[in-house]
Design brief:
Layout: H1 2-23, E1 31-32, E2 35-40, H2 43-55, E3 60-66, E4 71-76, E5 80-81, H3 84-100, E6 104-109
Antiparallel strand pairs: 1-5, 2-4, 2-6, 3-4
Amino acid sequence: MKHKNNKEGQSEATSVTVSYLLNFGVKCGDQRSLEFFFYTSDKDKAIKLSDILQKEYGYEIYKLHKTLDKWAVIGLTTPQPILTEMVQEWAEEMCKLGDRYECEFDGWGTLA
């Protein structure tokens, strides 16, 4: 159930974020790296997820650190087209990946 709620929330947030990007001059299909955020309560889970993101997806992890009570995994994707459907599919995949490693996908952003 947690995954379903996160997936629905990320889908809505992705639609809104892509709309904002298009309003700020990003053209549909422009290539952008997406900054992503995951959180978990366990360091080993954060390390495992970060390894998967680097080795299987080719993503750059630039922060793996402990916040007050959680471990954060923050990084960048390879450039990809800013198309609502494609970014929504990617966000759904990140929700599933996070669930698989008991990490919560907390969203994404990029520069306009």
